[in-house]
Design a protein that fits this description.
globular, 27% strand, single chain, 323 residues
Length: 323
Amino acid sequence: MLAAQVTTFGGPEVLVPGEVPDPVPGPGEVVIDVAYVDTIFVETQIRGGWGREFFPVTPPYVPGGGVAGVVSAGGPGVPGHWLGRRVTAFVTGSYAERAVAPVPALVPVPDGVGLRTAAALVHDGVTAAGLMELTKVRATDRVLVLGASGGMGTLLVQLAHARDARVVAVARGAGKLALVRELGADAAVDATLPDWPAAAAAALGGDDRAADVVLDGVGGQLGSAAFPVTADGGRFSAHGAPTGGFTRVDREEAARRGITLLGIGDLQFDTAARTRLATTALTEAAAGRLRPVIGGTYPLNRAADAHAAVESRELVGKVVLKV
């Protein structure tokens, strides 16, 4: 079968299409004929050699973890009703025509939700739904979303808006700012402004410490500049690092101000939690309350171009692969 493999650590050009053996399902596993593959920024970082203490992979390897497709075969002990079902799943090595997944990892795709939309929710939908639970966003909250025009940021804006929170979205450029307003942000602030934290605080409707919840999917200097905007007793989630590093927060100051800190470790869900959160995201999509923004779709044999597009940050929303 066709797959895209990382041949060595490096730029997008090291992601090369080629033939690999077809997967064979074991007991309790199924084969999924993949229709679409989810891509996320961290996959480009891993391909470049970053984060090996967290992601101990060695080239050559097939990257990726999220697929949407149709169950085509089952191993011993798999109930027959799974055959032919449209599903999403977390798998190992998703940049391929077929993938193997254990039955507990399968999430049925509701009628009315396309497989491309479903694939776009495999990672970011789970993480966004999980963040809503962990930060306990409610109607009285003022929520600041960093990286709001990205794949997960656009979902966070919608989910926080659906909870009737006041949402201020931080993004770059007029087009991205217009998009996040369309998705439900009460205000949008351009991250290129030198005084954007003050503008964000004002838009949140409070003093300098105006954000009850900060959802930091960016990290680096942007995240560091957002932390002082967090209200005493608030919640600060530093879950993203497309800048090359997660936001470093003074834990003593956070404790003194009663701020709850969350990080990427809090988003390492087990299979049962992933399945539950994925079901939540797909249910919201089926009801028309959650729309993933897909900025680019690339064929599997152009996975390198997809990675280049993700790294350029010129596209709005997500990039997915079509198999």
